[in-house]
DNA sequence: CGCCCTTGTCAAAACGTTTCAAATTTCGGA
DNA sequence: TCCGAAATTTGAAACGTTTTGACAAGGGCG
């Protein structure tokens, strides 16, 4: 493998000049630069990352630490993110180091990875309010970027979708169809996106003059079983008290809702409308539902390029506060939503 | 961060001596070694990996390159392996670099990772016969280890379960229960484990004097939908031609088989016995089946420690040919298997 | 006293790059 | 012809480690 010295020897130049020529420094003669470029190509020169790292202190790698959870495998978003990020990063010539965190102390894994001086920054997902990982990284002024945010006003680099808007849009659709009793099967209560969606759910419901019942709100993992259990509880309430529409924070939840409706012989969309947010493979999954599921959607993959860009900017020295990317979800109206069924004692038939 | 020089200065020693003391070289006074150890602890010394790498040429990292497949997310084993490996490697002070391969050329991703001189070796999964990745890595004498093997007699380091034995055991159980018409819902035909299991399936069937019908053998991804479709085809054959038992190469397949049996009102195990190999979370998933599923089992996680050890040995210079770890699957008899139903025209009843 | 061997230590080189400070060349203008 | 500034190029230091070859001290032996 050719080195800077080799190229220098080939052309009668010092390694220093070769380095500057290849790195685009302005003070090198353009004719010399060309000669260097040609020789580097010819000799198949590849900068030795390790040497670069040693002198610059940068490693060209970023870390991601997964927190082990027993039901992780039921959540396909993580896998998507992993592969999407790895692809996005490698386009930018950055590599991804993976670790899993099985310890009780959530920051221990970060310390360990840092102590080997092998990553320039981190990518975090699923932040919680008062997330100790974020506190640790901020306290040590380490570059990181978060998928999601642990507070609505976050002063670190993050990518997030506009959770309030998608809750607003979903409620607006349902109320405009005449629904007033709307259930909400949400993500885990500790997670910020769930809090944001719930908050706006309440606001939008109030704006439409629809009541919000706490027993029609449930929190939990984005799994089919949680969706099933929640919907079963909501839908087995007496006629007139049960929701005519359910909003879900994920398509897996919606799958559970569909199953519960099926088991209770409640027809979708005639007797129950369902809207979900789809952060997996927008369109692909939702289309396969029977009937096809109305969704707000933004894929995990869409987050990967912005996340990579933000992190690279941060590592390059950009101030953390300004770095953010908020994406609006798209709306896909499919067949799981319809007009609210006529209520008992309703004027129309 | 303290360096060797710092420790040397602290104790009036040269960095060279400090290095030798910490790395256990014999020619250093044991009293000196103790002083060095103490000082290193006190100053919180951590060897700088980058500098180590530059001089030794080793990076302390290994790479894993995932091939993107559209239905990847349905396959939870990969995720298991990723997290398990990462944990196993980090115990051994090795880090895992992840990349995804979206290119047409399967070796391009390996070349790219190598050109950055950042990994010492690779971990491969799901090898195919004549796998170009294996050919490439062997041709360049690069350390790697494979989960599975692309030929029964493989001359590279690999971990594998004894696929022939588990096929033999499963068939033996079923034939001893009186089953003679046994379906086999297998993995993809190109994959070696599937070929191995099929081969032994035929052998064991022949040994029991049971006929093997090609139409009762199906190949495909280890997904529920493939299991469902295959079982539906097998079970909707006319009475007397349809199998009384089905062997599955994965629990996801078994889930599909259960669903098909349910849809066709075929009772398990009264009218149909099901055995599957469970490489996910042995016991945990199979227990949740209704009725609980009889399995041969070895978890993905069990592979991780041996894989890590084999790769580290190989990187340290061990000859590739001898490095192998073959694990026998365990047998869990549950309630999805029972005596073969009496055949029409059978003597009894 | 000279020789060799062992033990413990060290200085220096090496890995390949970046970058600082200095040296050299070039050139326009006086 | 000379000066100073600008344009190029260079040597050397630095990053933190491993490793080679050398060396000093001490001991045993003839």
From TrEMBL, chains A, B:
This is HTH-type transcriptional regulator RafR. InterPro entries: HTH_LacI, LacI/GalR-like_sensor, Lambda_DNA-bd_dom_sf, Peripla_BP_I. Pfam families: LacI, Peripla_BP_3. Keywords: DNA-binding, Transcription, Transcription regulation. SUPFAM superfamilies: lambda repressor-like DNA-binding domains, Periplasmic binding protein-like I. One of its GO terms (molecular function) is transcription cis-regulatory region binding. Residues 2-56 form the HTH lacI-type domain. The keyword Nucleus does not apply.
């Amino acid at each position: 493998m050719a080195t800077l010295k080799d190229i220098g020897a080939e052309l009668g130049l010092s390694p220093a000049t070769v380095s500057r020529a290849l790195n685009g420094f302005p003070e090198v003669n353009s004719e010399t630069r060309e000669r260097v470029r040609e020789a580097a190509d010819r000799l198949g020169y590849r900068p030795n990352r390790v040497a670069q790292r040693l002198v610059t202190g940068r490693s060209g790698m970023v870390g991601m630490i997964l927190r082990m959870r027993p039901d992780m495998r039921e959540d396909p978003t993580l896998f998507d993110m992993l592969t999407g990020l790895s692809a996005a990063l490698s386009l930018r010539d950055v590599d991804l180091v993976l670790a899993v965190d099985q310890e009780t102390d959530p920051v221990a894994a970060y310390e360990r990875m840092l102590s080997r001086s092998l990553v320039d920054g981190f990518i975090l997902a699923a932040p919680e309010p008062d997330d100790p990982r974020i506190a640790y990284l901020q306290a040590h002024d380490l570059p990181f970027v978060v998928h999601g945010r642990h507070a609505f006003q976050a002063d670190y680099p993050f990518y997030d979708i506009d959770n309030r808007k998608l809750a607003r849009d979903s409620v607006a659709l349902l109320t405009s169809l005449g629904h007033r009793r709307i259930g909400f099967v949400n993500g885990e209560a500790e997670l910020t996106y769930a809090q944001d969606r719930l908050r706006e759910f309440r606001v939008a419901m109030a704006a439409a003059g629809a009541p919000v019942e706490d027993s029609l709100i449930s929190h939990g993992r984005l799994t089919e079983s949680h969706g099933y259990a929640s919907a079963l509880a909501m839908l087995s309430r007496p006629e007139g008290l049960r929701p005519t529409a359910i909003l879900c924070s994920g398509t897996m939840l919606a799958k559970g809702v569909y199953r519960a409706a099926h088991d209770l012989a409640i027809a979708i969309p005639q007797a129950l409308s369902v809207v979900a947010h789809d952060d997996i493979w927008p369109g692909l999954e939702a289309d396969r539902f029977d009937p096809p599921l109305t969704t707000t959607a933004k894929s995990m993959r869409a987050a990967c390029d912005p996340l990579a860009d933000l992190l690279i900017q941060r590592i390059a020295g950009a101030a953390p506060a300004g770095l953010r990317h908020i994406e609006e979800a798209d709306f896909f109206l499919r067949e799981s939503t319809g007009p609210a069924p006529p209520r008992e004692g309703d004027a129309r038939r």
